[in-house]
Amino acid sequence: MQVFTTSLRDVKLIQPRRFGDSRGWFAEVYNEAAFSGAGLPTGFVQDNQSFSAKGVLRGLHYQLGKPQGKLVRVLAGHIWDVAVDLRPDSPDFGKWAGFDLKAPSAEEEIRMLWIPEGFAHGFLVLSDTAEVLYKTTNPYFPEGERCIRWNDPTLAIGWPLEALGGVTPSVSAKDDKGSSLGKAELPPPA
Question: Which of 155, 161, 1, 139 is nearest to 70 (CA)?
Answer without folding.
Answer: 139
